[in-house]
Automatic annotation (TrEMBL):
It holds the Pfam family UPF0114. The chain crosses the membrane at residues 38-60, 82-108, 142-163, 169-186. InterPro entries: UPF0114 (IPR005134). Keywords: Membrane, Transmembrane, Transmembrane helix. The lineage of its organism: Bacteria, Pseudomonadati, Pseudomonadota, Gammaproteobacteria, Thiotrichales. PANTHER family: OS06G0710300 PROTEIN. The keyword Membrane applies. This is Putative membrane protein. It comes from the Bacteria.
Length: 193
């Protein structure tokens, strides 16, 4: 009986269409249309340059923090409290690094989706994060890093705030709880994939 069902499925499947003859104009236009995907290279290159720029700026900011801490402790320059300044500047540099990673992921993803696979990445042990097979996959990876960058930026802003009432501190505590829950659910949905 199972073989009869299998034979029925084979008989009812549609026959492939015979190849259609295309005109020369249609062939030329389709070839041109396909090559326009190379315009994505502009976005790939621009995103890479922006990523490099943010890595450099974040590194310079980190160097400035190290120089300030050195001046504070070794040079005995206690004109300002270095602790809050160092933490907020390092968090700011971390935010720049995360945005640079977003731009790099975006660049790699666009290249792999529209131009070609990156062969050295396929043979690499760390290529898992760079394997992107669809625009949805690229969007998800970029969104996750953007969410982390926003959370880091939020904490940088919280460090710079002055709290005067218990209600303000309660609001901050609730917002941190909301961020923790959001990260929990983000991680939970990522595990289901």
């Amino acid at each position: 009986m199972a073989t009869d069902d299998f034979n029925d499925e084979i008989e009812t499947s549609p026959a492939p269409r015979p190849p259609r003859r295309r005109g020369i104009l249609e062939k030329v236009f389709e070839a041109f249309l396909w090559q326009t995907r190379l315009l994505v290279l502009f976005a790939v290159i621009a995103s890479l340059f922006a990523s490099f720029t943010l890595f450099i700026v974040g590194s310079i900011d980190t160097y400035n923090v190290i120089a300030g801490v050195w001046s504070y402790y070794i040079g005995n320059d206690h004109s300002k409290d270095i602790h809050i300044i160092a933490v907020t500047q390092i968090i700011g540099a971390l935010d720049l690094f995360l945005i640079a990673v977003v731009l790099m992921l975006f660049s790699f993803g666009l290249y792999e989706l529209f131009i070609s696979r990156i062969e050295p990445a396929e043979n690499s042990e760390v290529s898992g994060i760079l394997q992107i097979y669809s625009l949805d996959g690229l969007k998800d990876k970029v969104a996750q890093v953007i969410i982390m960058a926003l959370i880091v930026k939020y904490f940088q802003m919280v460090f710079g705030m002055q709290f005067s009432t218990a209600l303000e501190m309660t609001y901050i505590a609730l917002s941190i709880l909301a961020l923790a829950l959001a990260l929990f659910f983000l991680h939970k949905t990522k595990k289901k994939e």
